[in-house]
Amino acid sequence: MHEMSLAEGILQLVEDTARRENARKVKTVVLEIGTLSSVEVEALRFCFDAVTRDSLAEGAALEIQSVDGAGWCLPCGETVPMNELYGACPRCGSYQVQPTAGTEMRVKEIEID
Fold first, then answer.
1. Strands 69-73 and 97-101, how do they pair?
2. CA–CA separation, 26 vs 14, rounded Å?
3. Residue 1 pLDDT level (bands cut at 50, 70, 90)
4. How many CB atoms within 10 Å of residue 9?
5. Confidence band (pLDDT; 50, 70, 90) for 13?
6. Residues 55, 60, 65, 66, Cα dihedral to 10°
7. Number of domains comprising the chain
8. Which of 39, 64, 67, 101 could form a disulfide with 34 if both were Cys (CB 3.0 to 4.6 A apart)?
């Protein structure tokens, strides 16, 4: 389950930021996760709860904002919506679609006290 290593990485980033800002507690962590990122959101929530025990982020709310998938279709020359990696273009059926959005996962906000 790669969500555990993702949760550990998120915690490291959050704790580094909190310490740099002399925070006593992390209240909220907001993530952006792309629909094409291959991240299982519920598994990530579970792992986040597990790795934050006995840390500055223990009990912090985890808010997840979904980012829609999009790609550049070479034959169409247009940006098209994507529901899956390596899927066909919904306009022309070509498989020559380069993802341009929806593959990312990033910490967008950290609320500290």
1. antiparallel
2. 8
3. low
4. 13
5. very high
6. 60
7. 1
8. 67
Helix (H) or strand (E) holding 28: strand 26-34
Encoding tokens for residue 89?
Answer: 């273009």
pTM: 0.89
* End-to-end Cα distance, the chain: 31
pLDDT at 29: 98
Q: What residue numbers bound the domain in which 92 lies?
A: 2-112
Residue 75 token pair = 């034959």
Write the CATH number for 67. Answer: 3.30.2320.80
